[in-house]
Amino acid sequence: MSAVWRASRAAVKRRRVQTFVIGLVVLCSTTTVLLALGLLAAASGPFDKAYAAQRGAHVVASFDTAKVSEAALARTAGRPGVEAAAGPFGQAVVAMPRGWLGSPGGSLMVVGRADPAGPVDRIEILRGRWATAPGEIVVNWSFNGSPSAERLGTQLTVPGSTPLTVVGFANSMSKSAGAWVTPEQLAALHPAAAQMLYRFTDSSTDAQLHTGLARATAELPGESVTNTQNYLTLKQAFSELADAFLPFMSLFGVLGLLVSALIVGNVVSGAVVSGYRHIGVLKALGFTPNQVVAVYLTMMSVPAVVGGVLGTLLGDALAGPILKVSFSGIETGRASVGTVPTWVYVVCLLGMPALVLLAALVPALRAHRLPAAEAISAGGAPRTGRGLRIQRILGFTELPRPVSLGLGQPFARPGRTLLTMAAIVLGVTTVTLSTGLTSTMLAMGNAGRGDGGAQVLVHADEQGERPLPLLGDAQIEDRLRSLPGVQRVRARGLAEVSLVGHTQPVFADFYRGNDSSYAYEIVEGRMPDAAGEIAAGPSFLAQRGLRIGDRVTLELNGRQVPTTIVGKESAGNARALDAAWETLEQLAPGSRAIEYWVRLSPGADADAYAAAVEAVDPGLSVSVEGGGNAAVVTVVTFSTVFTVLLTLVASLGVFNTVLLNTRERRRDLGMLKSIGMTPRQVVVMTVTSVAGLGVVGGLLGIPLGMLAHRLVVDNVGVVEFPESMKDVWHAPQLAAMLLAGVAIAVLGALLPARSAARMTIASVLHTE
Q: At what angle do helices 276-284 and 289-326 cross, to 10 degrees?
């Protein structure tokens, strides 16, 4: 084995370019594979992991304490099918004023609970501490990120009770309450309901959860259950953004796996085939066939291991930011979600070197059987076959001789050519898919802009230390319209309302003004423009089994307004709907807007307008919108990263193919130079040998990329793109996609072509 190691080490040092190329290909391929597998694996179960960490409740049930006693509720914990239970906890609803902790106001469900731990729904303290005395309250933090320490000590005034001081912020995966107080404090709030938290042995479907709750409450009086919430609804809300990204994650992942496997196999097997002469020399020196195979496997394992380790580190660095953005559905506290599973790292660290060794083993075993003399002569004798015949046929055409010679070269190695062309096809497919997705997402981000200018957002609610505005709602809107440069103004009100018959409250946006361009694009129906009309996104409608034409009743502070769904928006939060201002007037007369969207005329100075607004009223907060959108940025960034990686890997595959071809054809190149071929003609011939593959790859990859684009945009669960956003292909764009295949081929061929052009005749033919 010492001889094998010395021969392998010498081969690695002698073939520096080949070793570097193999290591670089493995590095890029490993990075691509880790991102692909990591994204696919992370999207398959982050909610379950976080929910299990907090022992989240499968069902949160509220009971009317006038119809059932606490003792009877406690006995339900021992019913068949109940794995664990917590409660009963007293439950009351208090009014939350507008602007308290940055909220739009509304109802706050408060639960009396002495301990955040327990067998079900272990509440996680994010900031501060748990409430231990009357007059203290812990708020369920319902925003992404951690709450600021400055908010601790904020007071909530409750009619008929002492003020409640915020002593902590917490997170409940079960969404079991908006806030918690001690049981003694809750008694002062005069609760009319009690809460039980259940985990069931069978909980994978809605039917099983319904059956489990029915068994648990079978001995209770009829109609004692007033409200229920199951975790499957929360799971759907959590994963809605991840599910939206999953289709193109999957496609990019599959493309990454295919391209990586093709290129690694092509590069490594080609490296072994090009080393047949070296294999013959080793055999002539006395190496056994098994030792020869061991030399080549060892020689390939060095760059494979180094590239695999570096690729894993690079992939891990890239995966973190992408996963952080992708998994931002509901709040998860500090629970670890969106992380790359350990097995993905193991697969990359062990699987990629194993793939390299497998790709090297097949041609090495073929060389294992070659006699030494035949192996030494491999590549030295003039080559015959399809490639030479096609070159002769092309020689009778009007094509320049370097071009005709180059076009015939791919036919000399059909297997290697097919693998290289397959990589180019997948590279063009990736570029086409990425371009289509970027165009669609940018169209969505720019929806409604029309020919308008800059967009300014004016906040009229409490912003940090800024007080409420001095001017009234109507006065603010009049002043905003009167300032120079204004094209359109739209006011927005916000309230947390209840849907009668549904358990979860929703956020309702109420719009007023002459600008309808800021809402999501309508894909079916129309925008609400009168009292009693609402519109919502596909996820909102799907989770509640609603469609256009259905009627729902909104409730706020005891007032109810029947409404009709008149439009489906292209996107939207699963807990948000849009309505006209007239509906808000019926629910809460005298409400005022919390913000105003101002569209300026083209060319108007947004900064000057913002300064003028702040001079009108110090209580107004102004920001100039840059038009950015988190989903747009995520998709564009993700597709760009994968496109660059896959294009680089495909170009490296072409580079390696051309490098091996020029080394195998050193004798032919020397003969051509000796009869007058110039270095420039050598470059043209070498680049032409793969440029044709680039054209064919582009013609095949473009329709595949267009099909993949349509497959993605038609299957994003939380977004329904209108046809105008899907139809992004035009003749100049398609021509650019065709050139992408040629660019991939030429980019990979240029360096080895220039190297071949610099070879001297004497260095090539010195053995003749």
A: 140
Provide the β-strand partners of residue 195: 62, 89
Distance set, CA 1 to CA 291, 292, 297, 301, 668 (Å): 8, 11, 13, 15, 37
Give the length of the chain. Answer: 768
The stretch 512-532 carries a mean pLDDT of: 75
Are 195 and 62 contacting, i.e. CB atoms less than 8 angstroms apart? yes
- Is the pLDDT reported for residue 335 higher than 50? no
d(CA 313, CA 318): 9
pLDDT of residue 200: 93
- Beta-carbon contacts of 271 under 8 Å, excluding residues fewer than 6 positions away, are 15, 18, 22, 300, 360, 656, 660
Query: Taking 50 as the threshold, does the pLDDT of residue 465 lie above it?
Result: no
d(CA 538, CA 419): 42
Which of 322-331, 429-438, 745-754 has the lowest average pLDDT?
322-331
> Cα 100–106–109 angle (5° rounding)?
95
Contact 615, 482 (CB under 8 A): no
Three-state secondary structure readout of 552-579: EEEEECCEEEEEEEEEEECCCCCCEEEE
Report the interhelical angle of 240-273 vs 414-445 (nearest 10°): 160
In whole angstroms, give the CA distance from residue 486 to residue 360: 68
**What is the spatial distance between Cα 382 and Cα 533, in angstroms, rounded to a whole number?**
81
**Cα-based distances in Å from 508 to 192, 524, 528, 573, 577:** 27, 20, 12, 11, 5
Q: What share of the chain is helix, strand, coil (3-state, %, to 5)?
A: 55, 20, 30
Q: Percent of the chain having pLDDT more than 70?
A: 78
* Residue of 247, 336, 340 whose CA lies nearest to 638: 247
> Largest Cα–Cα distance of the chain, in whole Å?
106
pLDDT of residue 404 exceeding 50, the answer is yes
Rounded CA separation 689/412 (Å) = 11
Residue 464: which pLDDT band, with cuts at 50, 70 and 90? very low
Of the two residues 494 and 370, the one the predictor is more confident about is 494
> According to DSSP H, which parts of 102-230 are helical?
183-188, 206-216
* Rg (the chain; Cα; Å): 34
Distance CA(573)–CA(586), nearest Å, equals 24
Q: Answer yes or no: pTM beyond 0.85.
A: no
Look up residue 486 and give its two tokens. Answer: 């204004």
Chain position carrying tokens 């409660």: 87
526: left (phi over 0), alpha (psi -120 to 50) or beta: beta
CA distance 47 to 53: 10
Q: What angle do CA 56, 574, 213 make, to 5 degrees?
A: 40
Check residue 3 and report its DSSP letter. Answer: H
Rounded to whole angstroms, how far apart are CA atoms 156 and 137?
9
The type of residue at 342 is T
- CA–CA distance, 746 with 764 (Å, rounded to integer): 25
583 near 575, Cβ under 8 Å? no
Residue 332, pLDDT score: 46
Q: Could you tell me how many helices (H) and strands (E) the chain has, helices first?
A: 26, 20
CB atoms closer than 10 angstroms to residue 261? 16
Spell out the residues 6+ positions from residue 25 whose beta carbon is closer than 8 angstroms to its own. Answer: 263, 264, 267, 307, 649, 652, 653, 656
pLDDT score at 328: 46
H helices of 239-378, where? 240-273, 276-284, 289-326, 342-346, 352-368, 372-377
Choose from 98-112, 158-172, 629-643 the range with maximum mean pLDDT: 158-172
